[in-house]
C-alpha cells in the first residue's frame, strides 16, 4: 500500500485542527507528510516544519510551484487555516494539479467559495472537504439504513450542534478568529452549523429546499452569530430543525441527529458515537453498534470505543484510497458539493434572519 | 386531614385521563369522590358511577345545581372531557361556587376560553388546570434553581414533547377526538404543545413575547397539526424553540426541557424524570435527585422511582390543601393564567403558521 | 368491584413502609382500610387511627379477635412492623382466618419463620409477602421472556441491591432497628439482599443450590452485616452473584438484575425501571418498554413513568383479586415459599460466612 | 522530538493486537517501526514486513542480535504474540539491552513469568506491559482522585470485564489460542481478568491480599475458564469482587470499575469511557469529563470522543518519553510489577477454585 505524499497549509505550532489532521493521516499509515507552509509567520513556519522533519515554505504559492515541480513532491495538500484563508491556497494548489483536502466550512465568503469551485472544476486534481463526523461508522450505518428504506418516507429531521465554550467574550486564538466576521464569515452557523447541515444531508440523502432562521449574538459586542436556530422545509414535505450554538453552557461538543420517517426513527449522538438507536414503528428500539455496521470503517472489534480521531482517519484513508485509484466507495467522502451546500445554507440562513425569519430558498 | 368532596365530569368507562385523575385523588387520601356526570351517554354514565359507588347525573348542569344544594355536595369538580367540552361545565360549576379542576388545554376555542375566564373571575370558587408535569419534584427543583439565580441570565430554552402514536391515521376513541378540529381545537399544538409551553414557563419564570411557527399535518387527510415547530423570542432577548409532534415514530412520551443561562444549564427529561442535570459553566455536570429536592413533594426516599401518577397526585394534594385553606405554596399550582397563556400560544402559533411563519405577538 | 376490607399492624405516625402500603391499597381503589393496631404505643396507635378514620386497637391479638367476629371486619391484614414483629401477629391473624399481607423479610429468626409457616399451612387464610419489585411490569416481562425460553439455557445471574444510607453509624428510627440484630435478624442481607434473591428467582425461575458468602460490617461497632457478597451455584451448572450493600456511598436504591443465557441476555435496573434490555446473541440489543409488556399491570400508556408505588399497588391489586376469587394469575404473587426461601438464603449465607466462605447448601 | 526506533515480534498479517500496537505507535508520531519478526511462518513474516516497509527476520533471536548490533537498530521491541510466546523473545531482547513492550498477560505460566522477571531485573533495558485501559484520561483522573483522598477510606471495589464472543465453541484464530490452555495459560481470567485486576489496583492503589474464586467452563468441551467470579479481601478490611466472563452474551467489551470509600464513590465504564462519575457522600453525583482531567493525556478538547486506540497511544507516548529520558510521570506506566501481580492473581484464583473457593493468599 503506497503512502500518499502530503503537504499542509496552516497547522503550525499552537494550532488545533492541524494537529488533528496530522494524527488522522498517521493513524493508518497511508500518508507521508513531506512539506508545509505551516504558518503565515515565517519563523514559526520553519520551526514547526523542523519539528515535523518536513520541507518548509514561507509561502503557499511557492510551495505549490515547488512541490508540483518535484518528482517526489506532495500529491495532495491539507488546508487547515482559518476560513478566510481556504480559498487562496486551494485555488493555487488545484491549479497546480495537487489534490486539496480542505477543512470546513468551504470559505468565509460566497466569492471565495466560487473561486474554489471554479478552480476545482477546471482542475484534474480532486477536492475533498473534511466533514469528519460523517465518516464515523454508525453515521455511515445510519445513511445505509435510510438509503435502503428502513425509515419509510422521511418526515422529521432534527440536527443539533451545541457547544458552550464561547459563552463569554472570546479569549485565545481559537476563539478570536472564529468570532471575527472577516476571518470566519459566520459564527456558530459556519463553524458547527455546517457540520450539522452536512450530517443531516449525508444521512437522509435530502437537502432542505427552504430555511427560516433566527440568529443571535448572545454575548455583548460579538460580531457574529453565536446561536442559530433554523427551521427546515424539504421539497418532499418533510420538515426539520437545525440548532447550532456556541453559548450552550455545559455542552462540550453536543452534536446529534434525529430522523423520523413513516416507518422508523434513527437517533445518534456524538457523545455516544458508537451506538445508533433504530426504532421501528411499534418498537422496540434497537441499539445498533459496530457489530451491525456494514461500512468496514473501523480498526477494532465493536466495544472498543473509537471516536473523533478515528472518524477523521476514516476520511483520510478513503481519500488516500481514492488518490491511489484503489477500489471502494467514493460518494461517501465529502467534497465540493458539500462545501457549496454549506455555503448556500449559511447564505440562506443569514438572508432569512436579516428578513426576520422569512422563508428563503437554499441555492441548489 | 379532612377529605375534599369531589365530583367528576367525563371519565366514564373506557376513558383514559379520567382514570388518571381518580388515581391521583386517591393516592394521598385527600379526596372523596362523591358524584359524577361521567358520560354523555346516560347508560354509560350510570354504569360508570355505579362501579365507583357515587351519585350519578345524566347532565352536568343538573349535577352542579344538585351538588351545590346539598350540605354534603361536591366542593370541587374535575372536568376530564375532550377539549371542546371543558367550557360549558366549567362555567356552570364556577357559577355554582364549586371549585373546578380542569384538564388541559383550557378549551378548544378562544371563545370557550374567554367564557371560562369570565366565570372564573366572577366566581368565589377557584379554577385549577392539570398541567401535571410541573408538579414532579425535579421540575419543581428546576424552577427553584432558576428562581434563585443559579442559571444567571436566561439565554436559551428548548422544550420538546414528542410522541409517535398518531403516525398513522387515527384509530380509536382517544385518537379520534384529538384529531377532530371541532373537538380538539388544535392537534399536537394543543394536546401536548401546551404542556411543553407551560413547563418552560413554569421553570424559567418567563413567557415568550413572540413566536414563529411551522405546523404540519404529516398524515394524509388529517385536519389538525400533528407536528408543530415553534421558534420563541423572549422580551429579554432570550431565544428558544418548542417542538411538539405526534408523528415522531418510536417516541412514547418524549417530554424534555433544556435551559441555558449565562452561568449554568439545566436539562430534564420525563423518561428519566427523577434526575435533573445542572451544569455550571466550567462543569462538572451534577446529577440532582430527590435527595436535593426542596419541594417536599414526594412520598418515598430518593431512589424509589416516582413518576406520572405521583406528579398528578402532587397537584391534587396541593389543590386539596388550597381548598381546605391549609398553609403551603399556592403559586406552583397551575390555574387560569396558565390556561389562557396556553390558548394565547395556540392562537399565536396558528396565526404565525397561517402567515408562513411570520413573527406573531403572544397575547399577554 | 368489591373493595376488600383491610386492617394494618404497625405503620403508625412516623413509619415509612406503612405509608407505602396504604398508598398502594388506595391507588386502584380495591381496598378499604377499616382497622389498625398501628403502634405499640397506645396513644400513637389511637392518634394514627383517628387520622385515618379507622377502628383502633391497642393490641393486635385483640384486633384479630374483634375483627374476625364482626360481619364487616377486616378480611385481610397488612403487617408492616420491624422484622422481629412479623411472626406474632401473622400467626394470630392466620389462626383467626384473616388473610395476611406481610412485609419482607419473612421474619427475624428461623423459629419465627417456622411459626408463620405452620400457621399458614394450617389456616384457610392466605399468606402474601410484599416483595414489591417483582410486580413491576418490566420485571414481569423479564420473567415471561425467560419462561418462554428466550434466553436459552441459563448460565449467569448477577443481582445487586446497593444503598449508601447506612455508610455512617445509624441515626434515626429506620436505621436503628435495621442495624439491631434482635429486631432485624440480619443487616443488608435481610433488608435488601432478600429482595435481590427473590427478584433473581422470580425472573429466572431458578433458585441457587449453594452459596458462598462474605459478610462485612464496614461501620465500626455495627452488629449486623452492612455489605454482603454472595456467590451462587445453581444445580443446573449456572453460576451467579448477589451483592447487597448499605454502605455503597452515593447509591440511593441501586437494585439491578443481569441474566445471561446461552442465547440471549436480559438487563434491568430499578433506576430505569420502565426499560428492559434484551440482547439476543449476535445483537442488536432491544430496549423493551411497557409497549412490549404482556402482564397487563400498568395504569397508563407506555412512556408515562410508573415506579415504586405502582409496583406495590400492582401487588395489592393482585392480592385483592385473589381474595375476591376473581380470575387472573396467582403464581406471580409472592407468598410463603418466597419468604421461606429468603430465610434459607439468609441462613445459608450467614453459615457460609461464619465458615470463611465455605459452600453451604440452601435449604429447599 | 526524536522518534524511537521500534521492532515488533508477532503481529503479522491477520493478527489483531499487533495492528492495534502499530496504530498506537503512529498516532503521536513518536515511533518509527524499523524491523520485525512478524510471524512464525517465514513467508508470512516476510510479506508482512514488506507491506510495512521494514526489515524482516524469520527468527526473533536473530532479530535481537542483529538489531542490537546496528547503530540504527531497534531501541525497543513490541511483543504481540500469544501469551505462551511472550517469555522467550522478552528474555532475548532484554538480554540484548533492547527495551521490551509486552502485551498482557505477562506469560502463560509462572515459570515463563519468572524468566521474564529475572531477565528484566538483570537488564539495563526497561520492561513495559500494555495494560492499555489504565492510560485512558478518566481512569488516570480516577487514580488521582483516590490518591488525593477524595474517597476517604477504601471500602468496596467491583471490577468487571464482560464479553460474549466466546459464548459458543471457539472459531477462528483469535478464539482458538485463547481457549487453548497451552497457549493461553488461563481463559477469561488471564485474557481479560488481568485487565480488571490491574485497573482496580491502578485506580485504588491497593492490591487484594486474598481471593476466593469460582471458575467455570460454560461451553462444553472448553479446556479453560470462560467465566471467573472472584471475591477479594484487602488487608485494610476493604472488600471487593472481580467478574470476568467471555460467555456474557451481548456484552461487547464491558469493562467497568466501581469503587466506594467512606466519603465518596467512583464509577467508570469503558462503554462511556470519557465520563467518570464521582458521588460524594450526600451527593449530588458529578459527571467528570476531560474538562476536569489533570493527566494531560488527550489530543483534543473534551467532548471529542477518544477511546481505545488513544488509550494505547497514551501508553506508547509515555513509553517513548521514558525511553528518550524526557521528563514526566513514570509510575503510571505498567511494567513488570503489574505483570507479576497479574500472574499472582491468576495463580491464586486457580488455586482457590481448585479448592472449592478456599481463601488463598495472593503472592506479593
TrEMBL record, chains A, B, C, D:
A UniProt-annotated Pfam family: GFO_IDH_MocA
Superkingdom: Bacteria
Gfo/Idh/MocA-like oxidoreductase N-terminal domain: residues covered: 5-130
Domain spans labelled GFO/IDH/MocA-like oxidoreductase: 139-266
InterPro entries in UniProt: Gfo/Idh/MocA-like_OxRdtase_N (IPR000683), Gfo/Idh/MocA_oxidoreduct (IPR051317), GFO_IDH_MocA-like_dom (IPR055170), NAD(P)-bd_dom_sf (IPR036291)
GO molecular function, one term: nucleotide binding
Protein name (database record): Predicted dehydrogenase
Organism: Paracoccus aminovorans
Amino acid at each position: 500500500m503506497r503512502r500518499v505524499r502530503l503537504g499542509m497549509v496552516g497547522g503550525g505550532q499552537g494550532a488545533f485542527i492541524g494537529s488533528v489532521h496530522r494524527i488522522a493521516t498517521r493513524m493508518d499509515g497511508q500518508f507521508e507528510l513531506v512539506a508545509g507552509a505551516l504558518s503565515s509567520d515565517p519563523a514559526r513556519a520553519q520551526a514547526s516544519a523542523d519539528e515535523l522533519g518536513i520541507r518548509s515554505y514561507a509561502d503557499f504559492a511557492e510551495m505549490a510551484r515547488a512541490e508540483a515541480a518535484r518528482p517526489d513532491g506532495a500529491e495532495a495538500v491539507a488546508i487547515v487555516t482559518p476560513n478566510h484563508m481556504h480559498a487562496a491556497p486551494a485555488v493555487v494548489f488545484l491549479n497546480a494539479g495537487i489534490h486539496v483536502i480542505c477543512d470546513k466550512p468551504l470559505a468565509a465568503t460566497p466569492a471565495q467559495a466560487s473561486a474554489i469551485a471554479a478552480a476545482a472544476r477546471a482542475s484534474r486534481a480532486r477536492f475533498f472537504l473534511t466533514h469528519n463526523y460523517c465518516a464515523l461508522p454508525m453515521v455511515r450505518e445510519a445513511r445505509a439504513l435510510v438509503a435502503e428504506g428502513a425509515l419509510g418516507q422521511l418526515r422529521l429531521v432534527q440536527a443539533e450542534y451545541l457547544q458552550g465554550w464561547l459563552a463569554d467574550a472570546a479569549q485565545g486564538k481559537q476563539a478570536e478568529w472564529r468570532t471575527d466576521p472577516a476571518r470566519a464569515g459566520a459564527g456558530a452557523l459556519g463553524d458547527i452549523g455546517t457540520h450539522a447541515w452536512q450530517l443531516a444531508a449525508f444521512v437522509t440523502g435530502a437537502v432542505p429546499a427552504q430555511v427560516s432562521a433566527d440568529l443571535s449574538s448572545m454575548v455583548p459586542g460579538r460580531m457574529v452569530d453565536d446561536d442559530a436556530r433554523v427551521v427546515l422545509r424539504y421539497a418532499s414535505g418533510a420538515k426539520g430543525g437545525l440548532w447550532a450554538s456556541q453559548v450552550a453552557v455545559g455542552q462540550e461538543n453536543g452534536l446529534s441527529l434525529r430522523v423520523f420517517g413513516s416507518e422508523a426513527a434513527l437517533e445518534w449522538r456524538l457523545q455516544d458515537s458508537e451506538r445508533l438507536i433504530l426504532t421501528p414503528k411499534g418498537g422496540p428500539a434497537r441499539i445498533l453498534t459496530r457489530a451491525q455496521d456494514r461500512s468496514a470503517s473501523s480498526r477494532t472489534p465493536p466495544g472498543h470505543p473509537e471516536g473523533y480521531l478515528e472518524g477523521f482517519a476514516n476520511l483520510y484513508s478513503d481519500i488516500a484510497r481514492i488518490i491511489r485509484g484503489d477500489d471502494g466507495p467514493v460518494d461517501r467522502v465529502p467534497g465540493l458539493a458539500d462545501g457549496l451546500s454549506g455555503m448556500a445554507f449559511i447564505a440562506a440562513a443569514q438572508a432569512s434572519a436579516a428578513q426576520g425569519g422569512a422563508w428563503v430558498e437554499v441555492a441548489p
